[in-house]
Amino acid sequence: NVIPHLESLGRCLAPDLMNSGASDNISGGGCRYRDHIPYLDAWFEAVGATQDAFFVLHDWGAALGFNRVARFPGQVVGLAYMESMVRPRLWTDMPEDRVAQFKTLRGEAGLQMVMEDNFFVETMLFDRGVVRDLSEAEKAVYRAPTEDPQKRRQTHQWACEIPFEGEPQDNYEIVKRYSDYLRASENLPKLFINCEYGHALAGAARDFCHQEEITIPTRHYGQEDCPGEIGRAVAAFIQKVRE
């Protein structure tokens, strides 16, 4: 619902990450963050999206997109992003009760919640991630890929991939590298789409230079609550970047 606002500005491409959507299931359903990078790199080459690209990013797609921008800065002319991992995390970023819950999610109990209850779709998305109530038809689209429990495993893996207090070290190094780059990238225009009721990353995101900001009345998944606002803001920003 965001793409229709951008179609007149160029070619719009939206890949499904491995083990998600219509993409293939590999590595038993639990790819690490670093495992996704070469697949996404190959996709960019295959579709010819290696120059004059503008990225619209969210969540783990943003962590992958930010990393790509930092490695190939000459290929990207600007980016817009919503709730995303803008720097390595600290446990003190969260209230104490949420720290305990999140640590549980990253363990065996969390894996059981994912495999048996599809926790990240049914609870984190449907119950806690949007303001409005999604229709049953909309929910069916999200549920379809995770009818295979092995694809649910990827949602649990993502929770384990977030670098807290420097661990996992390889992820910490990647996120630190792209975060440092984005804070200093004076020639890369950025649009930060702040989610008013989201995960409170706004302060860290505001460290990035050459950036504009809007706020939308949504939780984590702003695309479901405010696709029109996002689409129109991104379209206007792209046109401004091109001036």
Lateral arrangement of strands in the main beta sheet: 1-2-3-4
Radius of gyration, in Å, reads 17 Å
CATH third-level topology: Rossmann fold
Let me know the average pLDDT: 94
Low-pLDDT residue intervals, each spanning 5 or more residues: none
> How large is the share of residues in beta strands?
5-15%
Major sheet summary line: 4 strands, parallel
Question: What is the count of β-strands?
Answer: 4
Structurally, how many domains make up the residues?
1
* Helix and strand run: HEHEHHHHHHEHEHH
CATH architectural label: 3-Layer(aba) Sandwich
Which geometry do the CA atoms define? globular
**CATH homologous superfamily annotation:** Alpha/Beta hydrolase fold, catalytic domain
Number of helices: 11
Give the proportion of residues in helices. 40-55%
| Overall SS class | alpha/beta
Q: N-to-C terminal Cα separation, in Å?
A: 26 Å
Report the CATH C-level class: Alpha Beta
Description:
The chain has 243 residues and is α/β, with parallel strands linked by helices. The protein has a single domain (3-242), classed as Alpha/Beta hydrolase fold, catalytic domain (Rossmann fold), CATH 3.40.50. The protein is built from eleven helices and four strands. The longest helix has 16 residues, at 169-184.
